[in-house]
Amino acid sequence: xxxxxxxxxxxxxxxxxxxxxxxxxxxxxxxxxxxxxxxxxxxxxxxxxxxxxxxxxxxxxxxxxxxxxxxxxxxxxxxxxxxxxxxxxxxxxxxxxxxxxxxxxxxxxxxxxxxxxxxxxxxxxxxxxxxxxxxxxxxxxxxxxxxxxxxxxxxxxxxxxxxxxxxxxxxxxxxxxxxxxxxxxxxx
Length: 188
Description:
Elements: E1 4-11, E2 15-17, H1 30-40, E3 43-49, H2 50-59, H3 71-82, E4 84-88, E5 101-103, H4 107-116, E6 121-125, H5 128-136, E7 142-148, E8 156-157, E9 168-175, E10 181-187
Parallel strand pairs: 1-6, 1-7, 3-4, 3-6, 4-5
Antiparallel strand pairs: 2-8, 7-10, 9-10
């Protein structure tokens, strides 16, 4: 069975974005891209909430075509353009989404069908609302949490509102030269 893997950047105090949904405090560099890129290559499906999908779609389809594209931009753009993309949204229309399928109803059933299909893993980048909803239903198999060395004080919480307890097992941790720490957990 395929795994659903969540990649999320958070502040030290557990926020995924500021109150204004800004993420300019997130630190990402080649060291982090290389580390996360290995896991991305093990996936053939990308799952997004509607807001994260808009951000991704605005950049990744043509990122490799830019004259100063980095190694990561080229690799991730190529990956992005070839994977199946799923958007979780209750109010988005199919006409609003290019090269992706929308799941608006029966999300639990649809995600379970996706996980049962043959293929590589399913990755979810960001999408704190979608991550919370799917974690609540025990559908997220692994969490890769990139804790950034900043305290925001307030913002959009990462997992606030999950009502059921989720028992996790730490698989690995890695500190990067930037001060970001990746905590890799799986369901236990």
